[in-house]
Amino acid sequence: MANVSPTERTLDIIELLADYPEGLAISEIARRLKLPKSIAHRLVSILVARNFAMQDAMSQRYRLAIRIAALGLRFFGKIGFSEVCKPIIQQLAQRSGEVVRVCVAENGELIWIAKAQGASNGLRYDPVVGSGPVLHATANGRAWLSSLDDATARLQVRRRGFILPSQYEHSCISNEPELIDELRRIREAGYAISADESELGITAIAAPIADRSNGPAVGCVSVAGPSVRMRQPRLEALASDLLIAARELCEIWPLPRMQTLATAPAD
Description:
The chain is an alpha+beta fold. The protein has 2 domains: 6-64, Arc Repressor Mutant, subunit A (Orthogonal Bundle), CATH 1.10.10.10; 75-257, GAF domain (Beta-Lactamase, 2-Layer Sandwich), CATH 3.30.450.40. It has 10 helices and 7 strands. It has helices at 6-17, 26-33, 37-49, 66-79, 81-96, 139-145, 150-158, 176-189, 232-252, 255-263; strands at 53-55, 62-64, 99-106, 109-117, 192-195, 202-209, 219-226. The strands form 2 sheets. A 5-stranded antiparallel beta sheet has the order 4-3-7-6-5. It has a two-stranded antiparallel ribbon with strand order 1-2. The longest helix is centred in the last third of the chain and has 21 residues, at 232-252. The protein is globular and about 55 Å long. The two termini are 35 Å apart.
């Protein structure tokens, strides 16, 4: 702990609270992050003072404030993610009748950035946007890993290992040889499938969004729905529309603007 800065610990708290919208007690934050309770309280107090977190008056739990989400939305609005994705994923959602999501790759992680719902009635899957998909245990994660060479894909997964959060306990990929075999199949097909893995009763099909500068995929687009509707014949039928959407997203992905933002001189 001596080598970890307060800034890093504060960011750890933000990442932790992002998965607990109902909030966590200081004692629980300290336990999960292996921090002395006094340090956890001091760091959370800084977040509260800056309006990045708030304390519920009844439960005394701390949760993230809306300001965190607002900053993210403001950032996505500035670089045009939502605008470029929306028409394409809405069309795919309408054609598939299922939920369509887009995630972006950043520093070896996938982050959800857009969603469109195609199911208007009946059995409907409407996931809550939380932490990004686990790389080796989801269709999106494996689709993105397939854009890397095998050695780099192994390294990305090793950063967190094959230990999964409780909601991913149904994953059938549990070691590197299985993962590498699956990535080879995905490269041949152009898309990945996850059935009853990250969530029991849900099947997803995902395709990588290629990088125009020939690097790893910039993200993934996926279609997900109840497994009773997402059987193999239907997945094969959906694959064509999914791959078209992935190509369209690649063509209009806001890479030039993102590069401009990255290289712009500081004020």
